[in-house]
Write a structure and sequence with these properties.
alpha+beta, 60s Ribosomal Protein L30, Chain: A, 2 domains, Serine Threonine Protein Phosphatase 5, Tetratricopeptide repeat, 7% strand
Length: 286
Amino acid sequence: MLRYSPWVVGLWILLLFFNSGPAFSSDCDTLSKKIQQERRLINKQQLLDEALQTCPNHAQLHYDMGFARERLRRYDQALTYYLKATELDEKFARAYFGLADIFVVLGNLEPAIRAYQAGLTLEPDNQRAATALELAQIKYRSETGERISADEFVRVMQESRVQRTTEEAQDGPVVRMQILFETSSAGLTPSATDQLRAVGTALAHPSLADQRFEIAGHTDNTGSPEVNLQLSRSRAEQVKQHLLDRYGITADRLSVAYFGDTRPAMPNNSTQNRAINRRVEFRKIQ
């Protein structure tokens, strides 16, 4: 039988009292502070559900619910609550940071960058958010076709926070690259070998020398699914072989995955988005 501590029971009684009519702001502040003392996530969620019925315009309660939903990997719901918190309090820096963190987990880097920047305008000394912004900017530059350096690749792969994920998101530090191949083939262009120089140099860096990585091939939705699946496999394998041959990376450090057009990073509804989807991803797996 589930048991609640006496103070939680008392808080439920307090909530029932407030639910008899609209609560004043000070009442909502009191509820919020009391709920923050609850450590059991399920209990906390139930209390927040009740409190938000009474205090639907309380930014901190929406933020706390967003954080609770994030911990349960309910990322779409977390986004909704974090966004509502920023609408209710435009100076709520932590709500912008929460919003940005979720966007990063889901691989939506452009809105993540904007959210980090908004939060840092309000709280410029937040070093964690400043670092997260720098990493998001590196990843965004890479996935949109810009060159990144070996040092920048290393920085992303040294990211300490392992991201909890949905099926579509990634579960560790990831760098997406628009590697340019010969048309309809796995042949590397001169531009591609230039891009891979940074990767090969980074993988030989002492801080990554004992790490293993997955090389994942992806395509856009042009062509048949069967052809795209084989093409993504051939391209990922070609990238792996190039790194083995040119940079002396040992084969046991690199594995290959391929998904064809089944995991688009962006909707295939524009030339730019399709270019982003034609990518190779490098993911640290150990």
